[in-house]
Recover the amino acids of this structure.
């Protein structure tokens, strides 16, 4: 069953074609990696999916409902949200309040508080619930952001580099969590620079380069795709074959 | 239960004050205006404190409230109690109309735009003579005294009405601050894009807050009209003495806190009156100059508001308690 269907999404910023005719669809319960060189359009693409950026053309269908042109809070209400690459917590609120606020989308304050504690527990941060979010370390803040996104009860969750600056143990924890979430029925799109992590957890990988979808396949297929290798290394590899 | 005790003590103390003042004197009037301005600053605190948008145009809604109830009383003999709700409704509509274009503005731009809207309201009130009487102003007609007619021989009932108004507006502020809307407003204040992406309708929440704030300060405009008895567009639509003053009271007291506007009004209104009392016989503008200097000193001493004095006092008392 298709949960997310993206068809012909394009977006131009002045002279820069940030996204160009991006088309793919994701069945429910997949973990999809989105990779590509810096500036390939990954973050722009996530922002477009949740409605923070409006595409010039194309359609996005979430669980049968078109979401292009909807405000972000409507898209989140329909079940798709994202985390921010540079982490956008409410720095002067407590960790618990950050996550609780997301729970208010579908619950009253008391239920949202219970839900928030569950979400914090899942990312292993229940113990810092009362701390001010701005006082946490960067990896911790990234996990709070993940908990906050989870607290909106998403069907599709877009994770923008949640593993940045994590040590190997923490990274393993997040990878396990992503698998658990998938087992709970959440579909995940993951932007990550750490190749080993992405190759390990993803069922499928999309490669974006200059706003264009370059490849779409299993981790093995993508890793052996000469077009992908060229995009990453910046030159043709044919001569060496 | 325990946290209600200090609140009950403060309310009872405030209720006792007017009984100690000369019922026909000057200071009961100052006390009434202190409570009224505290309530006005509390209404402003919703938009200025919780949404963190520095509105400098609240005189527009305040003036609409004062004029609506007084015009309804003059032309149709409608009790100001009912006129207060009519004024509140019109104030809410005006707040909505101003909020729609200004809501997207941030910081200085929002402040300037709201200031301009407030001034537009003042100009309209001056020019629309057939409705408002223009620059001549309006006198609230004397009707036989009685609670239903909102007419009293003395200031004492006005003092209690202002106290009750302050309690109600403060309660509304606290309920909003602690509830779902308070969480949403804090989220918007800290990061609007992130707030949207966790499902907050940032436009709706901002508009709701602006309207509630506008309704409340418009209703307080009626209370002001009933105490002042006479007013003109340049008093109730005044940028300095209404818009900036309510913002100043909340900021000096501690913006975004329930106690802040109360502390701010308790400080600013009586001190300003006292300065006028003491120095008005001196050179022109001397009292304002001294008042200005006092404000600057307080702002430098407590940049986060007088509320921090209470916090410091509490910490000190706790330290004392731990020692003994």
């Amino acid at each position: 069953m298709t949960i997310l269907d993206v068809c012909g999404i394009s977006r131009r910023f002045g002279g820069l074609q940030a996204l160009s005719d991006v088309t793919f669809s994701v069945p429910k319960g997949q973990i999809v990696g989105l990779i590509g060189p810096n500036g390939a359009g990954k973050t722009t693409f996530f922002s477009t999916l949740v409605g923070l950026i409006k595409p010039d053309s194309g359609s996005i269908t979430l669980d049968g409902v078109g979401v292009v042109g909807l405000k972000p809070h409507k898209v989140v209400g329909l079940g798709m949200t994202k985390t921010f690459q540079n982490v956008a917590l409410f720095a002067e609120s407590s960790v618990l309040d950050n996550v609780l606020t997301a729970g208010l989308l579908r619950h009253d304050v008391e239920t949202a508080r219970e839900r928030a504690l569950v979400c914090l527990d899942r990312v292993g941060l229940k113990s810092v619930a009362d701390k001010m979010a701005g006082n946490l370390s960067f990896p911790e803040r990234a996990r709070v952001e993940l908990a906050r996104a989870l607290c909106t009860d998403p069907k599709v969750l877009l994770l923008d580099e949640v593993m940045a600056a994590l040590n190997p143990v923490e990274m393993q924890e997040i990878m396990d969590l992503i698998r658990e979430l998938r087992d709970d029925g959440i579909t995940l799109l993951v932007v990550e620079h750490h190749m080993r992590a992405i190759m390990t957890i993803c069922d499928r990988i999309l490669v974006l380069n200059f706003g264009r979808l370059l490849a779409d396949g299993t981790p093995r297929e993508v890793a052996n795709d000469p077009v992908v290798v060229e995009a990453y290394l910046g030159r043709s590899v044919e001569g060496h074959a | 239960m325990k946290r209600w005790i200090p609140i009950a003590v403060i309310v009872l103390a405030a209720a006792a004050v007017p009984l100690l003042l000369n019922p026909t004197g000057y200071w009961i009037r100052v006390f009434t205006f202190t409570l009224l301005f505290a309530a006005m600053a509390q209404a402003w605190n919703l938009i200025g404190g919780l949404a963190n948008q520095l509105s400098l145009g609240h005189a527009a809604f305040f003036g609409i409230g004062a004029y609506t109830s007084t015009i309804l009383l003059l032309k149709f003999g409608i009790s100001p109690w009912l006129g207060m709700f009519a004024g509140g409704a019109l104030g809410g509509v005006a707040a909505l109309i101003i909020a729609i274009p200004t809501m997207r503005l941030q910081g200085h731009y929002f402040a300037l735009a709201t200031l301009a809207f407030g001034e537009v309201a003042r100009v309209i009130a001056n020019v629309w003579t057939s409705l408002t009487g223009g620059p001549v102003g309006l006198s609230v007609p004397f009707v036989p005294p009685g609670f239903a007619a909102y007419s009293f021989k003395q200031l004492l009932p006005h003092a209690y009405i202002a106290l009750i108004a302050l309690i109600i507006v403060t309660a509304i502020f606290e309920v909003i601050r602690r509830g779902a809307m308070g969480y949403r407003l804090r989220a918007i204040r800290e990061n609007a894009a992130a707030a949207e992406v966790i499902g907050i309708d940032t436009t709706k929440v901002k508009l709701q807050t602006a309207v509630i704030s506008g309704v409340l300060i418009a209703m307080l405009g009626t209370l002001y009209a009933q105490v002042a008895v006479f007013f003109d567009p340049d008093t109730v639509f005044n940028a300095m003495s209404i818009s900036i003053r309510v913002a100043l009271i909340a900021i000096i007291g501690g913006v975004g806190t329930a106690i802040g506007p109360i502390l701010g009004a308790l400080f600013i209104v009586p001190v300003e009156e006292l300065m006028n009392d003491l120095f008005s016989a001196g050179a022109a503008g001397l009292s304002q100059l001294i008042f200005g200097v006092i404000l600057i000193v307080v702002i430098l001493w407590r940049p986060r508001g007088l509320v921090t004095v209470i916090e410091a006092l509490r910490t000190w008392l706790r330290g004392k308690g731990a020692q003994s």
The mean pLDDT of chain B is 92. Residues 4-323 of chain B form a domain with the ABC transporter involved in vitamin B12 uptake, BtuC fold (CATH 1.10.3470). Chain B touches chain A at residues 179-180, 183-184, 186-187, 190-191, 193-203 (CB under 8 Å).
